[in-house]
Write a structure and sequence with these properties.
Strand content: 15-25%
Radius of gyration: 26 Å
Strand order of the largest sheet: 1-3-10-7-8-25-24
Largest sheet: 7 strands, antiparallel
Helix content: 10-25%
Shape: globular
Length: 609
């Protein structure tokens, strides 16, 4: 330091040069927080559930993806070249380790890559989401902080230089977060795994110790609830220039969600490996949760029924063909006929006719369920088998009544204060809270309306090829003369859980990633789906008190339990969720240990044997 001071005094070394080679601060936070690019006074800097001020501490079970963020604050001189590494985690006492391996050109090839690194990309939100079905602007349900440089995309470390690939450049007095994911294999022994995160800024290295507590239980490969996300293969084809279905489905499977669209017998047969689990094997580049487990949701139609069911004879023939095919090939499939989307009264007669055409079938096609994206509506009750309501329209008692009658009651999208808002300017944990709400009220399927809504739907403001990397607003239906004012609005990040890794339409935004790029929203969906497995395991093990305490702490009031115009009651910080998850993990591990069969004491050989 004396030498540096002397050099500075002599003018031989600039202050900016010194600061550029030394980050002002390096700290860590869990996956349930959004740290904005210019937020240098974040409340989590001193400590949080993943950071005690000097050490990163995380935990989980086997067959789980555990994530945290390393936040690097640049000084007044900025950082010219920043990279982060986690070479290895070794079990304390020996016997096992988790080792990093560099990604291939395609980051969705997961074989032998239990540790993955992503740079966080920020988007400047200048217009707060304004849509009554997401939250009412100015109401107690609206998030506290909706503008600024929000963390959105998780860009693989091997992306193009200057577009999220390592090394990164950090402007003066700004944050740069690096997202770290660890997959815990099914055969890892329980214990504490230790390692060091290496942060290298302009050639100077700083290390942070890491401890991961691995509990002695395993998350199942089968999901305890299903999350389906609508997917249009034509959008990656247009933006990225080729068929990337394999990569997108593999990527989604790693996040425990299913990408869905309409199928018929021919297209379902062509996608057979997606439903048998063959597509999610090491032979096909997959390693992680859900290995060899196929997707379950196979819709017969999506965003409308098509014309095959308009007439009774045709409806019987097509429904018989479809249900027979599923019974013989994918007997565990969840299927449905999607009637007109969010229908109004003018479409009720048509929907009732569709219901009669299918339900009157004396053959196997009678079992094809009709799904509507709408809260319970009396005029449709005899036609509908699956009500799929937005959270704001989900009536808890009505759902119980409909289930008692043999109907299903699901939810789609989001809406504060009844559940989370799946948008850029809401807290990270909104996605996670929505899945907890599903557990609390026995919702078996969650539906998100689009995962790759890059080419704006013609039903909104005409088709436009959006520059989704540059403009956070991805839904905008302002100015439609036939729409009432309260059904018009704009939303940041709506319908975009994945971003194009390549961009032929906007070449300056091309990341050079031959597949999808994830988001903080999608990562928190996965976290919520893994939490759902914790809650499900705990319930199966008879840990009723622990489950109920966790629900009271995280989602005390959701759906119709929250009064109209009220404030959000669910937790909005990662720490709140992690505190409950840790208590559940300890209780599950203890219960599984106590419940495990013990070897009987040896009594020696009997005489004569």
């Amino acid at each position: 330091m004396r030498v540096l001071g002397a050099l500075l005094a002599l003018g031989l070394l600039s202050q900016n040069f010194v600061l550029a080679r030394q980050p002002a601060r390096v700290w860590a936070v869990g996956d349930g927080e959004k740290v904005e690019r210019d937020d240098l006074r974040n409340r989590n800097r001193a400590s949080n559930s993943a950071w005690d001020g000097r050490r990163i501490k995380v935990f989980g079970a086997r067959n789980e993806v555990i994530a945290f963020q390393v936040v690097v604050e640049a000084g007044a001189g900025g950082i010219g070249a920043l990279s982060v590494a986690l070479p290895e985690l070794r079990r304390r006492g020996g016997g096992a380790s988790i080792r990093y391996a560099r990604p291939a050109a395609d980051p969705t090839v997961y074989i032998g890559r239990p540790i993955q690194l992503f740079s966080v990309n920020y988007m400047n939100v200048t217009e707060t989401t304004r849509a009554n079905w997401v939250w009412r602007p100015g109401s107690p349900a609206a998030p506290a902080d909706t503008k600024g440089w929000k963390p959105v995309q998780l860009v693989p470390e091997n992306a193009k230089a200057g577009r999220g690939g390592f090394p990164l450049t950090v402007a003066p007095n700004q944050n740069q977060a690096v997202w770290v994911e660890i997959y815990t294999a099914r055969d890892l022994p329980a214990g504490v795994y230790e390692g060091r995160v290496e942060v290298t800024a302009d050639g100077r290295r700083r290390t942070l110790p890491v401890e991961m507590e691995l509990f002695d239980f395993t998350l199942p490969d089968e999901n305890s609830m299903h999350a389906m996300v609508y997917y249009e293969p034509t959008q990656p084809q247009q933006y990225q220039g080729r068929d990337l279905d394999r990569e997108y489905h593999r990527f989604a499977h790693r996040h425990r969600v299913e990408l869905v669209h309409a199928y018929n017998v021919a297209s379902a047969r062509a996608a057979r490996g997606r439903f048998t689990g063959e597509d999610f094997t090491r032979a096909r580049g997959y390693e992680g949760p859900g290995e060899r487990v196929g997707n379950r949701v196979i819709p017969r139609s999506f965003y409308g029924p098509g014309k095959d069911f308009d007439e009774r004879e045709s409806a019987w023939r097509h429904s018989d063909e479809w249900m027979t095919f599923l019974r013989e090939n994918f007997p565990a499939a969840l299927t449905f006929l999607y009637v007109p989307d969010e229908p109004g009264p003018s479409e009720y007669d048509y929907i009732r006719r569709l219901g009669d055409n299918v339900h009157s079938n004396p053959g196997p096609g009678k079992a094809l369920p009709l799904l509507v994206t709408k809260r319970y509506t009396k005029e449709l009750e005899d036609a509908i088998d699956i009500w799929d309501s937005g959270p704001l329209g989900f009536e808890v008692e009505r759902a119980r009544t409909e289930r008692a009658r043999g109907r299903k009651y699901w939810i789609y999208n989001g809406g504060r204060p009844a559940a989370g808002a799946i948008v850029i300017d809401a807290p990270a944990t909104d996605s996670r809270a929505t899945i907890w709400a599903c557990f609390k009220h026995d919702v078996e399927v969650y539906f998100y309306w689009h995962g790759v809504h890059w080419k704006h739907n013609g039903q909104k403001q005409g088709v436009r090829e959006q520059n989704v990397w540059a403009n956070p607003i991805t839904f905008d239906n302002r100015g439609q003369p036939r729409k009432p004012v309260d059904s018009q609005g704009w939303i940041n990040g709506d319908g975009v859980l994945m971003y194009p890794g390549e961009d032929r339409l906007h070449p300056s935004e091309d990341r050079g990633v031959p597949g999808p790029v994830s988001t903080v929203q999608l990562a928190n969906f996965r976290r919520g789906l893994q939490d759902h497995q914790y809650l499900t395991l705990a319930r199966r093990l008879g840990l009723k008190a622990e489950v109920e305490a966790g629900l009271r702490a995280v989602v005390p009031r959701v759906f119709s339990e929250v009064p109209r115009g009220g404030a959000v009651a669910f937790a909005e910080t990662g720490d709140a969720f992690e505190s409950v998850r840790y208590r559940l993990a300890r209780a599950i591990a203890r219960a599984e240990r106590d419940d495990s069969p013990r070897p009987r004491p040896s009594r020696g050989k009997r005489r004569g044997h």
